[in-house]
Amino acid sequence: GDSVITVQLTEEDKVEDDVVFYLVFTGSTVQHCTSTRKINPGSLETISPGHDCCETVKVALCASREGHPVLVVAEETFQFIQDEAYDAAQFLATCAGNQQALNFTRFLDRSRPPAADVDFLDEKVALAFRHLKLPAEWNVLGADQSLTENIPRETLMHFAVRLGLLRLTWFLLQQPGGRGALSIHNNEGATPVSLALERGYQKLHQLLTEEEAREPDSWSTLSHTVHSGDYSVKHHRGLDVYMLTAEA
Biological process (GO) annotations (predicted)? Predict the structure, then answer.
């Protein structure tokens, strides 16, 4: 999701300015409708939707004009593939509360990847997490809610903060158990908050300690989503396009 798609129009499809083009993606369980913006008379741009599974979907390019019926200009297929970011998000989601797996992830910290790689990892994994279908009972702290905060243990929040993953940390904060994870000490006595301070991650520390901390700028400029039942509407601020997603 959230990749730029360019649509090239044929000569006969280049029409007046009052014609509005949009794309309809039809999957097995979910349908997306995206608005487009015109780059020039022969090209359109929009954003690919974040889909709920890896499959090939049907895509229809539609044209709308006031007082006229909606026309299907062209049809094509579009494939959603499972990439490394999706695999990583699924792995981390299943790791919540699994101490053996969470301790295994700490080896990433020893390699200390370059800042550009961390930023790329943060953006892709957080985006994949947003599109995962997490179980209704999913919790940042894992399935065993009988554990008290006094028991030292590693959490997903420790993992995200240790690597400086700002977007992933923000996502986890919004999930059940996210705020509770902030006060949990690991076996070294560190909380996610103390880890951020120790490593000099000022923005991350601010995100964790301010009650009214705002969404990271890098996400705010990307898109904003409003959910209502089986529907959601996303506004991509960069391209100024909208996307409606509905259960099919």
Answer: adrenergic receptor signaling pathway; positive regulation of canonical NF-kappaB signal transduction; regulation of Rho protein signal transduction
